[in-house]
C-alpha cells in the first residue's frame, strides 16, 4: 500500500499495483523515496479521489483484454469523463503532474471533443484566454480559411 | 455574490495553471477544420496551431511513389521527410512480383493499386509496401463488346479507364483493410458502365447508367489514359474531374452516377492527390481552368 496526501491534508491508501500507473510515483518508489506518505501539493482531495477511482479500475488493464472486459472498461471510461468542465481540467492537470499516460489521453480527448465544434469566442471564454490579436490579424486568419468559420456544427454556447 | 466571485477566481486560477503542454496535447486531437478556426483564438494559439499542422503533415506524409510514364519503368519512392523513415522492410520499388513490371494506378491511405497492364487493365493487385503483403484481385470479366485487336476480333474489357480506389482501415493494429475499386471506360458515351469491386464481396459487378448529358472529354493530343487515371474518394463516393470542367461522381453506397452542375465562373483545378504520383510533370502540377 502507498499513502498519498492531497493539498488539503487528506490521506488516501492505494494499492501499489494501481498507483504505479503514475510514472512519477513509480519512479519515486523505484528510487526508494516513497517510504512514508507522498505529498501531492498540486492536487485537491476531490480530484485525487477521481484519479484513484480511475487507477483502481484500470489496475488490471492488461488482463482485461484477455478476459473480454474491454467493453466494461470502455463504458467506465465514458462514464468517467462525464464530469463538469472545471473538474475535467483538474483531472487533466493531476494526470499531467502524476504522469498517468492513459488518463491524460482519455481526458484530453474528452476536452478536445467538447471544444472542437465551438466558436472562437466560446473557446476563449471556456479557457479564459484573452485575445491579443489585432483586428487585422484576426481578419487575415479568417480570410485565409473562411470555410473553417462556417458550418451548422459551430456552437457558440459556453458549457 | 461571494460564492460567485469565489467561483470565478477559482476558474481563472485553473486556466492560468493550464500549461501550454496541455493545450498542445488538446490541439493535437482537433480535426483540421477546428484547428484552422482556432488559429484566431490568440497569438500563442496561432503559433501552436501552425506547429501542430506542420507536425501533422510531416508525420503523416513520408513521401510518395513515382513512376516515369514510359512503359516498363521502374517504380521509385521519394522521401520528403528525413525523420520518418518507415520501419522494417519498406518496399521502395514495389517489387513484390519479382521482376514483373507493374503500373501504379492509384493509392489510398498508403496502400497501392497496381496493374500489370496499362491499357486493357484486367489484373489488379492491392499492395502494402510497408509489410510487402499483397492481394491479387480476380480478373475483370471481359465485356460483351467485340473489339478488333491486331486484325483479330476479340472480346475485351475497356481500353482506357478512370479508376477510383478507396481503402478503409478496419483494424489499425493488424493492418486489416477493406477496399473498393471502381472504374469506367473513357471516353464515355451516352451510357456509362461502372465496374466495381469490393473486397467484402470479392467479385466484380457491373452497372450501366444512361447519361442525360453526354460526357465530353477534353480533346488533347495526349493519350487519354495519361489524363484521367484515378479519382478521389470521400465516404464511399468517388469523384473524377474531367477536362471539360465537369466533375463525374459515382456514389458506391447508393449506386448512382452523375455529373453535378458547376456554378458559372468557378475555377476547377486538379492536383494528383494520391500517394503515388506518375513521373510526368504534367500530372504533378496544378492544372487550372477558368
TrEMBL record, chain A:
GO biological process, one term: SCF-dependent proteasomal ubiquitin-dependent protein catabolic process
Quaternary structure and interacting proteins, as annotated: Part of a SCF (SKP1-cullin-F-box) protein ligase complex.
This protein's UniProt keywords: Ubl conjugation pathway
Family, per entry: Belongs to the SKP1 family.
Every SKP1 component POZ domain range: 1-59
Protein name: SKP1-like protein
GO cellular component: cytoplasm; nucleus
Pathway field: Protein modification; protein ubiquitination
Lineage: Eukaryota, Viridiplantae, Streptophyta, Embryophyta, Tracheophyta
SKP1 component dimerisation domain span: 102-148
Domain of life: Eukaryota
InterPro entries cross-referenced by the UniProt entry: SKP1, SKP1-like, SKP1-like_dim_sf, SKP1/BTB/POZ_sf, Skp1_comp_dimer, Skp1_comp_POZ
Role according to the record: Involved in ubiquitination and subsequent proteasomal degradation of target proteins. Together with CUL1, RBX1 and a F-box protein, it forms a SCF E3 ubiquitin ligase complex. The functional specificity of this complex depends on the type of F-box protein. In the SCF complex, it serves as an adapter that links the F-box protein to CUL1.
Any one Pfam family match given in the protein's UniProt record, by short name: Skp1_POZ
Molecular function as annotated in GO: cullin family protein binding
TrEMBL record, chain B:
Pfam families named among the record's database cross-references: b-prop_At3g26010-like, F-box
UniProt xrefs under SUPFAM superfamilies: F-box domain (SSF81383)
Ranges that cross the membrane: none
Cited InterPro entries: Beta-prop_At3g26010-like, F-box-like_dom_sf, F-box_dom, SCF_F-box_component
Highest taxon of the lineage: Eukaryota
Residues in F-box protein At3g26010-like beta-propeller domain copies: 98-244
Residue stretches making up the F-box domain: 17-53
Protein name: Uncharacterized protein
Gene source species: Capsicum annuum
Phylogenetic placement of the source organism: Eukaryota, Viridiplantae, Streptophyta, Embryophyta, Tracheophyta
